[in-house]
Design a protein that fits this description.
single chain; 1 helix
């Protein structure tokens, strides 16, 4: 295999930096209300 064959396509993954306790940050994010969907 050549090096060119191993190239990945698509965007690079984003890195999210979480300050403090990650478990509490996840719980807090999941507790937020979802935005209301716009219905016509």
């Amino acid at each position: 295999m050549k090096k060119k064959d191993k190239q990945k396509t698509g965007p690079k993954p984003e890195t999210l930096k979480i300050e403090g306790d990650w478990e509490n940050a996840v719980k807090k994010a999941l507790d937020k209300k979802k935005p209301e969907s716009k219905k016509k």
